């Protein structure tokens, strides 16, 4: 199917399903445990309603935003995800090209199958951040920080919500086109092809530091000149701790519902995290972002930028770099149109007063109060 006929992310998801092996699809789409958090990430967005302001001059709109000092054309970037080669032979290099062509950022996972240098070379003008794993050997972490800095990555992302890796290499089928290969992780001490799938799990157990703590975060903060983003923050306490340690940005995330199941949807905790951070760090969100209205809601509730995980992989599976570009273009266009329809000409016009939680209406109904929109809309001349 020509991907130019696909006009929504839901259509991309369907098309990607058809193009992808069963193993790859189950890996990409799998939620954690029963999938409660995964489902809620989507449902929760629908529980927020938009109260538009009309008859404002929105003829010309500007979706650009600056994150960690870098200007992006729109506030939607790509979250770190592993093993892109399962979806397309050009792997993370294609994803990076897709993101760069749209002038947005991509976070490269340590679990990428193209090395961080190769991905940098594939999209030299792109905005790239690097997700660094915690290793038992700090020397290895230091060397990776230096490599990322040299290769032009402009921020380091640490993931707080994954104390253990539960991916089972015993489930990797022998029918994969090539063995999985993680050059950022074992390039240094394992020659290509030296480890079979079954030995990988043991290698990772010995190398990667599980159950990392704030002390590890602090070490990274002190050992790089790049800004540090802490991903996987859901509690006010952790957000405040991140600020105390001088973290530059927190990414409100539940790992797309793939880690702790039963936790909250990210959009539901966003407001409290934004308040807790109090402008001392930038705040981003990921988890279930699938439409331009989702983006607008997250921005209205205080996120400076949102990230997508699976949707970028659907684009990659369907059409490589171009597919990633198309997915981003759809979201950008939807955001642009939603901004027009809600009276916002620029990102800073997207204010909390645009969004009301559905419980507001239920509450007013219960108390027999008039339901006339959002009381919080600030007074303005118009
Ligand atoms: C296939 C897959 C692999 C992922 N790999 C990583 C990873 O290596 N590091 C990480 O911090 N998060 C990883 N994540 C989580 C994403 O960064 C992100 O938090 C999540 O996908 C956002 O939710 P969404 O898929 O609903 O957009 C992964 C997610 C998926 C679906
Ligand atoms: C093939 C190794 C996968 C490591 C874990 C990546 C990840 O964070 C995920 O959610 O999956």
Automatic annotation (TrEMBL):
Family indicated by similarity: Belongs to the FMN-dependent alpha-hydroxy acid dehydrogenase family.
Listed PANTHER family: 2-HYDROXYACID OXIDASE 2 (PTHR10578:SF149), S -2-HYDROXY-ACID OXIDASE-RELATED (PTHR10578)
Gene name as annotated: HAO1
Enzyme Commission number(s) from the entry: 1.1.3.15
Classification lineage: Eukaryota, Metazoa, Chordata, Cephalochordata, Leptocardii
GO biological process: fatty acid alpha-oxidation
InterPro entries the UniProt entry points to: Aldolase_TIM (IPR013785), Alpha-hydoxy_acid_DH_FMN (IPR012133), FMN-dep_DH (IPR000262), FMN_HAD (IPR037396), FMN_hydac_DH_AS (IPR008259)
UniProt-recorded name of the protein: (S)-2-hydroxy-acid oxidase
Binding site for FMN: 80-82, 109, 159, 231, 253, 258, 286-290, 309-310
Organism: Branchiostoma lanceolatum
Coiled-coil positions: none
Needed cofactors: FMN
Domain FMN hydroxy acid dehydrogenase, residue spans: 1-360
Keywords: Flavoprotein, FMN, Oxidoreductase
Annotated glyoxylate binding sites: 27, 255
Enzymatic reactions: a (2S)-2-hydroxycarboxylate + O2 = a 2-oxocarboxylate + H2O2; 2-hydroxyoctanoate + O2 = 2-oxooctanoate + H2O2
One GO MF term: FMN binding
Catalytic-site annotation from UniProt: 255
Enzyme class: oxidoreductase
Cellular component GO terms held in the UniProt record: peroxisomal matrix
């Amino acid at each position: 199917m020509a991907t130019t006929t696909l006009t929504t992310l839901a259509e991309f998801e369907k098309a990607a399903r058809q193009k992808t092996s069963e193993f790859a699809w189950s890996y990409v789409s799998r939620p954690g445990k029963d999938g409660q958090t995964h489902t809620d990430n989507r449902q929760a967005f629908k529980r927020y309603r938009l109260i538009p302001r009309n008859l404002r001059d929105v003829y010309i709109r500007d979706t650009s935003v600056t994150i960690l000092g870098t200007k992006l054309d729109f506030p939607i970037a790509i979250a770190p995800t592993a093993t892109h080669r399962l979806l397309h032979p050009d792997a993370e290099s294609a994803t990076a090209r897709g993101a760069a062509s749209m002038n947005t950022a991509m976070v490269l996972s340590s679990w990428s199958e193209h090395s961080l240098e190769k991905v940098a070379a594939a999209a030299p003008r792109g905005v790239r951040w690097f997700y660094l794993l915690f290793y038992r050997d700090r020397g290895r972490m230091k060397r990776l920080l230096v490599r990322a800095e040299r290769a032009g990555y402009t921020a380091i992302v640490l993931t707080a919500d994954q104390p253990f890796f539960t991916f089972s290499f015993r489930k990797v089928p022998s029918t994969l086109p090539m063995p999985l290969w993680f050059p950022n992780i074992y390039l240094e001490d394992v020659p290509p092809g030296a480890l079979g799938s079954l030995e990988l799990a043991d290698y990772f157990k010995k190398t990667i530091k599980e159950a990392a703590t704030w002390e590890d975060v602090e070490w990274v903060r002190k050992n790089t000149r790049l800004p540090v983003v802490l991903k996987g923050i859901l509690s006010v306490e952790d957000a405040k701790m991140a600020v105390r340690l001088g973290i530059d940005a927190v990414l409100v995330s539940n790992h797309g519902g793939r880690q702790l199941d039963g936790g909250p949807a990210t959009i539901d905790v966003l407001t409290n995290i934004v308040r807790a951070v109090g402008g001392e760090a930038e705040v981003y969100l990921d988890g279930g972002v699938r439409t331009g209205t989702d983006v607008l809601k997250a921005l209205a509730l205080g996120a400076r930028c949102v990230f997508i995980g699976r949707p970028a992989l659907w684009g990659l599976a369907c059409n490589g770099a171009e597919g990633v570009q198309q997915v981003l273009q759809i979201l950008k266009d939807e955001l642009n149109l939603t901004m027009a329809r809600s009276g916002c000409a620029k990102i800073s016009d997207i204010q909390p007063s645009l969004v009301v939680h559905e419980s507001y209406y239920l509450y007013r109904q219960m108390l027999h109060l008039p339901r006339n929109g959002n009381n919080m809309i600030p007074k303005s001349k118009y």
